[in-house]
Design brief:
This protein has ten helices and twelve strands. By secondary structure, the protein is of the alpha/beta class. It is globular and about 70 Å long. The model has no long low-confidence stretch (mean pLDDT about 90).
């Protein structure tokens, strides 16, 4: 598949000065490469603090990179300015984790969905109102709901409003940052089905950020496993779930609910808490919690190596399948 958006050797470090100029930078993302094709859904998973949301915002151009390069259809995202930047950003949109906090409680949702149409010169007035009605229908909400305020909706309905607002400018690339984590399980399934339908019907490139592995498995084609800002494993969803090669991936999967009631998993307990991204371990950043760590793991960052077609992992060990 030809990538629509690509990030090469992406790094993002925050701060570093402190009160007396001696503080260490927070290494939120280190040397991460990601690509997403049209119509493809890529899952980004990991614990809190792994760098998932930072990567999403970097790829949208919302925060500057420390190093690396992002291209949308061959055009550099970070280097764009003025009208060129506006045209690029119109093609990339974000669906937030908490739609209520991203909506203005004092404005009708129809007006908020129409904002993008007006700002980007797509439509205004009656034409914009008709487009808003079509967008509400597209996400499964009655057109009359355009005149309601955010507090009049349930959590799932507000997330549909957020998706409609993101789709208003007809983007090619959508970042969904934990979009169902605050919803009940039954509502989660409805929103996930909506995202899957929109992705297939509109040919969207979707970067889906989540800590919920079963949710990622139900929606995504590929999965990228992050730990402390680095990629531990990447590959087709079914291959990674059936044959995880990195110890961290195995630990995450051992803690996730099994979709097969007849299959029992042995829980892999990780010792301690994740290290601070301001002071990551040398070598493999996972080694301080890894049950299979070797002395050599402290010496250098493990190179990624192939486990199968499109499936690779960064570990010195060769664990039994």
């Amino acid at each position: 598949m030809i990538p629509l958006i690509e990030a090469h050797n992406l790094s993002k470090h925050f701060g570093g000065r402190g009160w007396f100029g001696r503080g260490r930078p927070v290494q939120a993302v280190n040397d991460v490469s990601i690509s997403v094709a049209r119509g493809e859904a890529v899952g980004l998973v990991g614990e809190s603090g792994s760098g998932k949301s930072t990567i999403g915002r970097l790829m949208l151009g919302l925060i500057p990179v420390t190093s690396g390069e992002i291209k949308l259809d061959g055009q550099k995202v970070g280097a764009a300015h003025g009208d060129h930047a506006r045209r690029l950003r119109r093609r990339m949109q974000l669906v937030f984790q908490d739609p209520y906090s991203s909506l203005d409680p004092r404005r009708k949702v129809g007006d908020q969905i129409a904002d993008g149409l007006v700002i980007h010169g797509i439509a205004q007035g009656d034409e914009a109102r008709e487009m808003v009605k079509a967008l509400l229908g597209q996400v499964g909400l009655p057109t009359a709901h355009a005149d309601r305020y955010p507090h009049e909706f349930s959590g799932g309905q507000r997330q549909r409003v957020g998706i409609a607002r993101a789709l208003a400018v007809k983007p090619d690339f959508l970042v969904a940052d934990e979009p169902v984590s605050a919803l009940d399980v039954s509502v989660q399934a409805q929103v996930l089905a909506l995202l899957a339908d929109l992705r297939n019907r509109l040919g969207l490139a979707l970067l889906f950020i989540s800590h919920d592995l079963p949710v990622v498995r139900s929606l995504c084609d590929r999965v990228i496993v992050l730990y402390l800002g680095r990629v531990m494993e990447e590959g087709p969803v079914e291959e990674v779930f059936a044959n995880p090669r990195h110890p961290y991936t195995r630990a995450l999967l051992s803690a996730a609910p099994s979709l097969d009631p007849g299959k029992r998993r042995t829980r892999i307990l990780l010792k301690g808490d994740p290290p601070s991204p301001a002071n990551p371990p040398s070598g493999c950043v996972f080694r301080t919690r890894c049950p299979w760590a070797l002395p050599a793991c402290a010496e250098a960052v493990p190179a990624r190596r192939a486990a199968g077609p499109g499936h690779d992992f960064a570990c010195l060990r060769d664990l039994d399948p």
